[in-house]
Amino acid sequence: xxxxxxxxRNLTVDFANGERLSRAVxxxxxxxxxxxxxxxxxxxxxxxxxxxxxxLGLLPTxxxxxxxxxxxxxxxxxxxxxxxxxxxxxxxxxIFQDPSSCLNPVHRxxxxxxxxxxxxxxxxxxxxxxxxxxxxxQVGIAxxxxxxxxxxxxxxxxxxxxxxxxxxxxxxxxxxxxxxxxTALDATIQAQILVLLRTIRRDTxxxxxxxxxxxxxxxxxxxxxxxxxxxxLVEEAMGADLFGAARHPYTxxxxxALPALTGPRQRLTAIPGTVPDPGSVPTGCRFxxxxxxxxxxxxxQPPPSRRIGLLHRASCHLQVEAGRSVWxxxxxxx
Amino acid sequence: xxxxxxxxxxxxxxxxxxxxxPFAGKxxxxxxxxxxxxxEAGRTLGLVGESGxxxxxxxxxALGLIAPTSGSVHYRGVAMPAAGSTPWRELRRKMQMVYxxxxxxxxxxxxxxxxxxxxxxxxGSLPPDEHRARARTVMEAVGLLPHQFDRYPHELSGGQRQRxxxxxxxxxxxxxxxxxxPISALDVSIQAQVxxxxxxxQDRLGIAYLFISHDLRVVRQVSHDVAVMYLGRIxxxxxxxxxxxxxxxxxxxxxxxxxxxTGGGPRRExxxxxxxxxxxxxxxxxxxxxxxxxxxxxxxxxxxxSLEALPDGRQVACHRVNEPALRVAA
Lengths: 334, 330
Hints:
Helices cover 32% and strands 23% of the residues of chain A.
């Protein structure tokens, strides 16, 4: 296999909370291949966004980042600002949930695109103008020439997200990190944006990290899925494997909590309890307090990350059989 | 049998300015434009649609929280009294509302137990010394622990706060709950807890729900009937399972096809809409959906389709719904 594009090793993020440190992210090993689309799924507070903010040095100073994140061998953690500035936007671009709050309300779309093009590609004047038009065209904005003169408030949420994607593409990045790119959008607009991301990936060959709390959004749009819980990776697999044969009780629970779209309606399986507070995560397996099959050792030692199949890893002491949900067992009854 | 709640041709218009300053043009925004529905006791009507389609306004009209421009709401066959009047207050005991954001719906400076008892204080339906006992019963019914009575909202998790909001709504033993996106602000694993709770409460207490949500999976899970709204009008209405299995209106088909699937199963129809929903100030003539509809013909641009019943009881507002060729073409 070719060398991966991005390599994460022992990445930790700690937030100072008064005297105490609370660990928001603790990832032992995670790679992204060249041109690969990876989905990161997790609930709020699982560290799925913080991981990438930490990698790009975008966290406030009260957060301390440890471990290593390398892109093509270049270390990002602890790198000087000048290095990071050449990486951000140029090699790794990021788009966020709420496009209207990421665009500058007092500048025209064209000006903002021009700024990104000047910064990353050194384009100015007519060349920048032409490239901005091409980018808007690439993200499917009709009547691009007129849109360049518009302010963000004149565009709908879906159009603003397209502009954000165009700005992210301005640096021709190797990796696009899309943090909940469709959560603020309506269902029919969400479908449009996801198709757009797929088309762009096909045309440019860039890698994509799609962060979402919605398993469905991730399932349809990536090759590989990583599930995070309370700052740790709990399961990692090819998309089809994860949804067909999830092994970690948390992943199985997330899948069972999703109402079906076809077939008879059955009572949903609800995972009891709530996500632990980052300041007081359980020792051992962080999912143990909510897990129906937790054993004494689960509360004592953190589970090892075990290889289960081809490109399939799960962090669980128990070897849950494929195709058997722990939530269907009698001890999972509410 | 008379329906618990019946809405007839509800309309709500707002006067808006189309620009800034004193000389800006004026326009009329039709938030809800001729919506009729019935909810039977103990049943759930799901109301789906994208943002700005008027589903929340419909929910507020149903409770009389805002007055309709025209049309009427009947509760057990009796017309809804004017908002703020004594009979309306009396009626509101039987109809409560649950909002999306539980933290916004709670007072951060009061223990949740006090807030749960507040409806009884307002409606004065029980002697004060029984309030606490009633609150404890209801808290248990929604899965809250007795010691949480003295907690403040910030000390509870999102799911627990939504249970508090539900408990407060249940204190006056309502027959109808209007739930406006009750689980959208919650995490996936917590959503399932609240959905199960809503269904259990309906089983035990026979409450009817008007369930407003943009999440079609959840709506299918909780609803007996579903109404799909687009730009202030109901475009399709019918029994929940069949509506999602065989959506008839092109907009419903697009909505259903936009839900991502997890795992295997047959590939479903793909109907990707172009463009954004138009502004409700400037609703297209004819069928409001025609600029985004892949099947629109001349008639759709000029003539507004009305909601017609199909042989199986489904109601659809579309000129071309009976053309079999459209079922496959997409």
